[in-house]
Please model this.
Amino acid sequence: MRITFFNPETANLEKSFLSNPYAISTTSIEVKNNNRFAANDRIMVGEMGQEKTEVVTVTSVNANGTTVVVGATVFSHEADTPVYNLRFDSARFYRSTTTSTGAYTLLSTQALDVDNADLSTIYDDSTGTSAYYYKTKAYHSTSTLESDFSDPMKGAGWLRNQIGYVIDEILEELGDINQVHMTSTELLGYFNDVNDDLTVNVSKPYSFLHSRSAHTRTLNRNYMDFPTDSDGNQTMWKFDRMDYNFTDTTTDPDTDETTTLTVIPMEEFRNKYTDNTISSTTVDDDPPVAMTLDTSVKRFRFSHPAETTVANVFYLHYWKFFTRIDSEGDVLETPTAKIYKLYSKGMYYRKRGTVETSYNQISDRYFADYNIEKAKLKQVDRIDKGSPRSFRPVNATVRGFRL
Model:
């Protein structure tokens, strides 16, 4: 089982250039500026993916501002070859033999394959299967600094509804697997741009974003906050309804009823339920008689206040915002990936068009197709409205009329 780790980008690394050409086995190099290079740093001489690129360890840095003493080089290098101070110089491969959330064991730590034209480092798990799950980390062999884990990936590869699968397809179809003209990070940003565009271009939310969550009715409380994510951002795009599950074990048989609460305007609620305060005479564990949406403080208000805490009795039905896409392990929320692919290809050729204007025509075509696909997505709002086929008795007579 071959596991691929994509080498970290070099764009934001400390960088200098060789002042002179150097032969094989060089142990001291002159760079334009040795500022921020230090002993035990791992530096890469050459660009990632080029044939003679290599990584060496800094032994010491001279105070003259240009000299760096290093371990002996394996290749010769020309003047003005870039020199990068690597944040990470290795890849670590982990495996879970159970599930994506199971315990992961370190399989191997591999030095970055910096001269690999595919800009990746590969580990071959000879005992792996397509059912296992894998994670990777970037690692620095001298400072022991580690990155966060990557998203888990099954040995069989990304699933069709995962962002990583869509990114791989786009890069392959564009012939840019090595991400020369477009990176996976850029693509994640484009996917979020698509979601923002889909959100602001419809008045009625999409059925595939309809959701339900259960909430607790809390002792001595007459409100419930709108749902938020872990960062405190609102997740409710449009409100649908609020159901309440009322149970009473003192009756025979037990009462277990779910009803939809009546929603009234905020002004009417405020005037009608002026006694919506917390006191021994106002609290009640029966289903609330009314509720309203107080958008000024992003709360659902209801009457009467709760007499006790009861878990998961409010069922909120709503249309959610698109979840922000920030990793390749995220899952698509649209029915298909087509709209993301069209937009991303349009942006790819628009980016290329800044240098070669002939690409602009291709970009315009993809954006035209994108707008058509965007219009199609609105049709999923009709998912709850079907045109069922009619059912006729076997012996029914059907007459056809033809000109």
Notes: Residues 1-157 form one domain.
